[in-house]
Specification:
The protein is mainly alpha-helical and 209 residues long. It is built from 12 helices and 3 strands; from the N terminus they run αααααααβαααββαα. It has a domain of 91 residues. A hairpin with a 2-residue loop joins β2 and β3. The chain starts with a helix and ends with a helix.
Length: 209
Amino acid sequence: MAHMKGENSKNMLRYSSTIKSRPYLYLELKKALSLKLQGFSSDQIKDKAIKENIFSMNSENRKKEIASTILTRMEVLDEFLMDKIVKGTLETSKQLALYALLKTDLLFFEFMNEVYKEKYILNDLVITDKDFNIFFQRKAEQSERVASWKDYTYYKLKQVYIRVLYEAGFIEKVDKGIEIKPPIIEREVIDYLTKKNDEVYIEAMLGEV
């Protein structure tokens, strides 16, 4: 029963491929959260993103798209987590930026939960093309939406998942493929997310709490 809250919140999401064009966005999220902690409202931050181009985007559509994505990720963070991203260690900051992504992208969460976590638990620390192919095939069988995507979408998702995990410090790129690099997450953060009934996301990142 401890996982119900996390399960319910993620089931409200739909499978999406928007991560292709809106990936990790770590620096953008950190900048927005810094403004939030200074007292700016979400509307003011969105306004700054569009009028002042604080995220350095090269088109109006891109400004709006990234602002919308950042605000969505901000909504799943409370003040404690915002503070950790803005003022915490680089490792913790990046881990919690990934947590915000997991909470707002169901398909990426399920990849972490069903592929990354399982491989870590089994001590099989290399993620291969076959692992990606099996995962996307399984999701296509479960979802008409995923089944309707073109092969290029799966290819781009694989590339972006790898880049996100690399930037967040969860994998290393080595000659034989993609090697899992289990993060060391602060006990305070683990305990805090567990109290929020969000251990399902901690387990996706750590294998187990």
